[in-house]
Structure formats: C-alpha cells, structure tokens
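Chapter summary example.
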Amino acid sequence: MQEKIYEFKITQPLTAARRKAIGALIDENAHRSPWAITYAWDKAKTRLMVTSKPMSVDVVFHESRIEVFREASLWARMLLTKKKQEQMQSGVVNVLKELGFFEAKKAAKSKGASR
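The structure predicted for these 115 residues follows.
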C-alpha cells in the first residue's frame, strides 16, 4: 500500500528540460544504492516511478506542488528512522532547488542604487 510521505509547494512547474535533468540525476547517482534502481515516467509525463528492491517511490508533479508516495516492505519502513526520513526530505528539497522548481529570490536593491 502506498503512503504519502512528502508534499512540496513549488513555484515553477515540471518542464521537459527538468524531466531530462531528473533522469540524468538518477542515472548519475544510482550507483550509490546497493540495489538496482529503475525509473519511468507515466504516459502524461507527470508521474515519475522509481523502483528498487526495498521500496518504490512515485513522484507526482502538479502545477504548484509535488507529492511523493512510497511503497515499502515492513523491514524497509522499520529501517527508515525519523532522522533518516528528515535527511531524505532535505535531500529532495535540495534537488528540487537545484532543478529550479523554486523561484530564486531576487537580490534586494541597495539604498545607493541609481535613481
């Protein structure tokens, strides 16, 4: 049974370039897992399904939010301590920032700026 583990508000939607970058990140980092990792996009290209031996993760991209669901065996869920879940969430947020899903803050004008 799938359970929703995260939901993030985003300011920039999924694009073809971001989809390609997500695939590249998975390909570049898959070797870090002791199990083989596979991934695929659904027909609408709005749901990313990532699968490995202990669990599968579905990432659903909406216009202004992203939902992350997981399905894991009992032993895999038991190994995911609160600290590890927080680290995983932080890692997901960093990847989303890197891929441009959050608007970059504009630099504040200095008082001495031209009038």
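To summarize the output: Residues 3-81 form one domain.
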